Amino acid sequence: MSVTDSQRDLISVQVSNSPGGPGGLLAGMGGQPRKLWGGLVCSLLLCLGLVVALVVVSNRTPAGTHREPSASSTPDVCLTEGCIGAAHMLLQNMNRTADPCEDFYEFACGGFEERVVIPDDRSSRSQFAIIGDELLIQLRGILEAEAEEGESRVFTMARDVYKACMGEEEIEEIGLEPLKEMLRALGGWPVLEGDAWDAEAFSWVDTVYKFRKQGYSTDYLIDFSIVTDSKNSSWRVIDIDQASLGMSREYLVNGLDDEDVTSYFNYMVSVAVLLGADRPTAEKELKESLMFEIELAHASQAREQRRNATRLYNPMMIKDLAEYAPMVPWLEYINNILTEELIQVEDTERVILDEPGYLKNLTVLLPKTPPRTVANYMFWRAARASLGYFTEAARKIQLEFSKNITGTKSETPRWRQCTGAASGSFASPVGNMYVTKHFNEDAKHAMNEMVADIRTEMEKILSKIDWMDDKTRERAQDKLRTMKEYIGYPEEILQENLLEELYEDLVVHPKDHFNNGIRMSKWGTNYAWKKLREKVDKTDWKRHSRPAVVNAFYSSIENSIQFPAGILQGNFFGPDRPSYMNYGGIGWVIGHEITHGFDDQGRQYDDTGNLANWWEEETKDRFLAKANCIIWQYGNYTADAVNKTLNGVNTQGENIADNGGLKEAYRAYSSWVGRHGEERRLPGLQDYSPKQMFWISAANTWCSKYRNKSLEKRIKTGAHSPGMFRVRGPFSNSPEFANDFVCPLGSAMNPVKKCEVW
Question: What angle do CA 590, 592, 594 make, to 5 degrees?
Fold first, then answer.
């Protein structure tokens, strides 16, 4: 099922928790979270002892540094617990022997890369992951806690889903039979059924109907979803798109010559054999189904071609779809997916067809593909989606594939999987418990000032840009002015009656893991699709009710920015440390999300969230030229560890947001200093000015370490550049950075040619 809104994020932490597809830190006292700084948690006495060590460290002269002279030989030093912890984190992460004007990422994060060991069950390690780990520990504590007497059923349901997932003995005892029974109920996986499978009785259309009734995805050949209408964003519309593939198109189009595609094929065969298939038969038949999926990949458009929302917006009536795919009984097809219980439509119902060419390609592909091959492909996808609900043997097969694709070495601990599943499906109830127990409300108040400061700087940028005509400028300022912000959590999630109303139709059981997944998948799909006729309420609290995530978002449809409670901590934010760290951390995140409203995709939507061209032609051409500079710059970066260049087209939106957001945050901090005065320095880092500390803090946001396979995957399929380039790119484009670190013109971090959009 497609995402219903255009939400842009910094980084995603998602857990698959339904058979049909993707589902969706610290113990504190008195509701106040402890601070985490690179693993350091210290009492006041211990921290004061640490100051001595930090000051000794500061007296060593690192090679290649460019420092701003101190106004005083003994600058004022901050000795709060937050400052000491922050200094410890930064000093651990830095490599102060590196020249900041040649490679600021190595200077700020070289120690992180040297020190950090990627856990065996992970493909990478980052500052985001460190906070995410602590958040998961907090959520685990919440889910494992005993139910309070008389508590709302929504909290009990979240715990029941967790308990069912953790019930490994029951899962092993039940075995694989429920999955085999489900596959038979869906019509039978040919590779398992052998000669008993009846090709003449098979219809891929009827199989889609069966998948829908049982809670499985309907998107394996044609993607169906209910989305906000991009050009009339107060209402929803049916959307038809190219298929959701079992492996990213970027891999599949390389065919079986690609070792990762071969790994995917072995994964298919192993699953079939586990469920009872004869291996030689499975290898023969599933190779044919893989070749069919490769054809589907070739029939689909690449990511680079899907950044233009106007190209994807092809409105028509249901009856018009027959022109592109006459083999589909469209009205019957759509009504069966919607189901009689939810809603039915007429053939004059308006739909949006994203990729007309894909349907035409599918029309050619299906008749020349044997029904058995199509069925083997569809049932492989259903079996794979279910695998995580079953035995250790099933999960080991998943792990083997994951090892080959991402480089992980061991299975994710069971409690992490189950915490993710429960908190993903019950985001609002778990969010209620999280903010009640762990969230520091001071963070919400401080964020208000920072958001206001950074908005002001973006407004100044818009008012002074010389390449923008006045008409477009005024529309851009309207968009910025009307951009809504959501910080922390919506107050409604604290009202238990609203949560109970939201989940009133869902039933789960503490000892029925697989069927819990089925029920949650059906419930989630029904909840989304029954809203077809409802007017969109863009301020609905349920749209912003996932506070327990380490992430941030921009929504083009809402023209809104969102900063959940989970990200307002750690290296991003702390209430008792200098503001240069907060503006470099969460401040950059704020600027990043604001700038998404004006990147290559966000700029296609107006201030009301409608897909509309509000740009004068000459100004649009100038924007595209500036965006092309960013595309060229990042497209010429090479990740040496894997010898692969970045995809400047697919990452341009995030790169534009990084560059603009950093500029806004720096200027906002300078404005803050104008109001409040210069801040104290950190122990052990006294030689660095507050402005230099802004840059060091900002760079620490993206300290990252990747396994090679994971880095390859990120470059091949990701919308974000790897962490090192999220520092090197924006910093090297900043004259303010070059000035603060006195970098010679022509040095790596102060090139003569710089790229700038905003």
Answer: 70
Residue that is written with structure tokens 């760079």 in the block? 699
Burial class of residue 41 (count of CB atoms within 10 Å of its CB; 0-12, 13-18, 19+): middle
Q: Hey, which residues does 226 pair with through a beta bridge?
A: 238
- DSSP conformational letter for 747: B
Per the annotation, the verdict on 658 as an active-site residue is: yes
Give Cα separations from 392 to 400, 415, 416, 447, 678 (angstroms): 12, 14, 15, 45, 57
Task: State the pLDDT at residue 149.
Answer: 87
pTM: 0.89
- Average pLDDT of every residue of the chain: 90
**Which residue among the candidates 219, 593, 600, 740 is catalytic per the annotation?**
593
The number of distinct structural domains making up the chain is 2
* Of 69-73, 118-122, 138-142, 385-389, the least confident: 69-73
Q: What is the pLDDT of residue 70?
A: 42
Taking the C-alpha atoms of residue 245 and residue 297, their distance in angstroms, rounded to an integer, is 7
On whether both 478 and 344 belong to a single domain, the answer is no
Q: What CATH number did the domain enclosing 229 receive?
A: 1.10.1380.10
pLDDT band with cut points at 50, 70 and 90 for residue 575:
confident
Q: How confident is the model at residue 71 (pLDDT cuts 50, 70, 90)?
A: very low
Q: Specify whether 340 is located in the same domain as 442.
A: no
Environment class of 269 (CB within 10 Å of its CB; exposed 0-12, middle 13-18, buried 19+): buried
Q: Is residue 576 among the annotated active site residues?
A: no
Closest among 383, 425, 420, 147 to 268, alpha carbons compared: 383
Catalytic member of 658, 679, 687, 740: 658
Within a domain: 217: yes
pLDDT of residue 316 exceeding 90, the answer is: yes
Structure tokens at 191: 């590779």
Tell me which residue range forms the domain holding 360.
176-389
Is the pLDDT reported for residue 712 higher than 60?
yes
One domain for residues 372 and 509: no
Given a contact cutoff of 8 angstroms between Cβ atoms, the answer to whether 305 and 354 are in contact is no
